[in-house]
Amino acid sequence: MMKQGLIFLSFLSLFFYHSIAATIVAHSPAQAPAKAEAEAPVAAKAEPPVATKAEPPVATKAEPPATKAETPAKAPTSSHPVVEPPSEVPLVQAPPHKALAGPTDVSKILEKAGSFSVFIRLLKSTSVSIQIENQLNVSNTLTIFAPTNGAFSTLKAGTLNTLSTEQKVQLVQYHILPTMVSLQNFQTLSNPVRTQASNTNDYPLNVTVEGNYVNISTGIVNTTISGTVYEDNQLAIYKVDKVLLPLGIFAPRPKSLAPSPTPLLKPKKETNSSTSSSSSDDSDSPVGGAAAEVHASDALGVNKNGLVNIGVAVVSVISMWVQF
């Protein structure tokens, strides 16, 4: 009887447990939406939506369709070429430390720079390149004006072939100054500038500076330094676009004028009376032969006009021959 009572109580407790759990589950979903609905109006009242005015769209300018890039207008060209200031940056850079094996080789520098083959050939054929090497070897300083191949092409055909060996040497040395001059120091030179050619009288060279331009005048050719080929503390090589022609070789010489012909004057004619009287006098004279000789010598004398009286001499000789 006791066991049945315990079993009945356990079933009854289980029944109440399940019924309570079902009640809780049934009421919990309904309360959640109600609570949410109750809180929703409060939240809406707390923060009412702010109406903002819609901004009109900003009208943008329509960009024109892309066209081809316009090329800048070219500057009007003139008959005279535009000369640019010389570049201070050397075409051939000097080594940071000069090798102690030997002096700077000018021919190799010009070969490396390019466009100087004609001037290199002149340096070697005249042996001036050896002179330059010897001068640099004893710590002398030099400045060289190197004409380009284009400069030599402007000369009259066969100009170099008409020069003697000595003239070619003078021509090359005319392009060399015995001191090293930087671009900034050309304005300190006094004209005429001394070159390694014979003298400044026959080989004058004038150098003037106008702004950034270094002008060179020989009396025949005017040009400017167009760039720096090489520069160190001992040697400076500058590029020029014309060959420096010295007056001592290329100065125009006046043409010799042919002597004007001397007009020939006719000898004076002697009258017949004077001729006959002279003949009679000579025949009556005991020394007719001597008189005839004297008369002949007088006839061969010079008249007023400086001409020989040939006619009178012939007459005198005939009269002397008749007497004999």
From TrEMBL:
The keyword Secreted does not apply. Residues 1-21 form the signal peptide. Residues 103-244 form the FAS1 domain. GO terms for cellular component: plasma membrane; side of membrane. GO terms for biological process: plant-type secondary cell wall biogenesis. Keywords: Cell membrane, Glycoprotein, GPI-anchor, Lipoprotein, Membrane, Proteoglycan, Signal. Pfam families: Fasciclin (PF02469). Belongs to the fasciclin-like AGP family. This is FAS1 domain-containing protein. It comes from Ficus carica (Common fig).
